[in-house]
Amino acid sequence: MFSRPPTCSVCGKPIEKNEPIYVRMRYPSYRGMVEIQAFLRQEGTIICEVCFSQKNNHEK
Ligand SMILES: [Zn+2]
């Protein structure tokens, strides 16, 4: 799916296999879900579970 190993955009940690991740992206306005993987590679921001939960805690 990814041409290079995906890493967390916050801490830079490589994403492990089967690790739950969060992806922040804009929903493509003119493409269908079929192309969402290609869109993800260009526009997606991957956040690991640890960073995502820490981010949420800070905002509370
Ligand atoms: Zn992280």
Secondary-structure map:
Layout: E1 21-24, H1 36-43, E2 45-48, H2 49-59
Antiparallel strand pairs: 1-2
The protein binds zinc ion.
Provide the descriptors you would attach to this structure in a database record.
binds zinc ion, about 15% strand, single chain, alpha+beta, two-stranded antiparallel ribbon, about 60 residues
Count of separate structural domains: 1
The pLDDT mean sits at 80
Strand order of the largest sheet: 1-2
> Taking Cα atoms only, what radius of gyration do you get, to the nearest Å?
13 Å
Number of strands: 2
Order of helices and strands: EHEH
Query: How far do the termini sit from each other?
Result: 34 Å
Percentage of residues in strands: 5-15%
Briefly note the structural class of the backbone: alpha+beta
The description of the largest β-sheet is:
2 strands, antiparallel
Bound molecules: zinc ion
What is the helix fraction of residues, given as a range? 25-40%
Shape: globular
SS summary, helix count: 2
Folded structure, characterized:
It is a single chain. 32% of the residues lie in helices and 13% in strands. With 60 residues, it is an alpha+beta fold. It has one domain (1-60). A two-stranded antiparallel sheet has the order 1-2. The longest helix has 11 residues, at 49-59. It binds zinc ion. Zinc ion binds at residues 8, 10-11, 13, 48, 50-51. This is Fe3+ hydroxamate ABC transporter substrate-binding protein. It comes from Saccharococcus thermophilus.
